Amino acid sequence: MAGWLKISLTEANYLQKRLVKYFTFRHFFLSLAPAVLARYSCREKSIAVNRFGKIILIPALFLAAFVLSVRAESVTTPAAPEVTAAEVKAPVAETDKPLVSAYAPTLLYLGPVPADAPLEELHTPTIFANQWPKNFPSLPITNSILYTWVVALTILVIVRLGTRKMTEVPSGIQNFVEALVGGLRDMCEGMLEPKVARWVFPLAATYFIFIATSDLMGLLPGVGSIGWGEPVKSLMPFAIKHAEAPLFRPPTADANMTVAMAAIFFVMSLWWALKYNGPWGLVKHIFGVKGGFKGLVVIPLSAIFLFVGCVEIISICVRPVALAMRLYGNIYGGESVLAIMLTNSPLGIAALPFYFLELLVALVQALVFTLLSIAFIGMFCSHTDEDGAEHAH
After folding, report:
1. pTM above the 0.85 mark?
2. Alpha helices of the chain — where are they, by DSSP H?
């Protein structure tokens, strides 16, 4: 043990110096620690104060800049000259005029021009004006009616070409026509009872084919751009600034056509509902207590279902309005967007993406109108579980 602890005098002196140096530095750092910590905490507080000051200062600078700009604007803006009412009305009427008018202009009258015709239609061409019965109203031919005939003629030609020489293995146009008609028939049979599907299929197929063809033909060049308008100087003959009264217009972009189709749907759906349910059955279908309840509980439920039936009557009246306005709004809105893009962009390049979008919209809107018509009729012509059991017996 003594041999293990034996060290030389030189080593003992070296160890003593190291220990003294260690404890000296340790005491020095411990004495400095409070001062360093206090200084650091003060620095942290100053940083926090500086950040808070910047947060307050920046909004204050923005507010001051805004006040100065408003004050400078009010000082430097010269007083506007007095403008008469006539000078104000003229540019407003010019700028507010839409590129695509919601009004379908009359191209000609079958019969004399009516006495209450608009001022711009007093000089409209007429046909059979002298031979027309006096008490019979004249028939206006608008650009949308004219294009409706073109669309109908196109459908007849395509169907005739597809069914002229029927073969057992279809090909070409026959294949397209059969696939279209078969798909629409399967859609009706999948959503309605077989008896009701046979009633509804001709109307639903007509709606889809007519709307889709009308929407797609409305995207052809010249539709909505060839017509009458303000002439301009150009290398092209008969150039106009914009077709204010176009020769052709898609029928579905005219509210008269969409409202007429919705009115036909409304009348036919009521007729099929009466045919399917009977008069008293239709009243029970709308106002009757559903769920198979019996006994005294039916008395309070009758008041509830009477209220529900009144809401259902409102819903039935709103359905044709929704069908008409949805189709009209989408097609008219797309036509307006295309007109704006073609007019306000060089060579109409900005309208190209919207053309592809309108191709999709044309088919989607035809499908939506047809599906909703079938669904609304199916809500009329369907039995509840207990009614179905009674009919089964």
Report:
1. no
2. 2-5, 9-76, 85-95, 143-163, 173-191, 194-217, 255-277, 279-287, 298-344, 352-380, 385-392
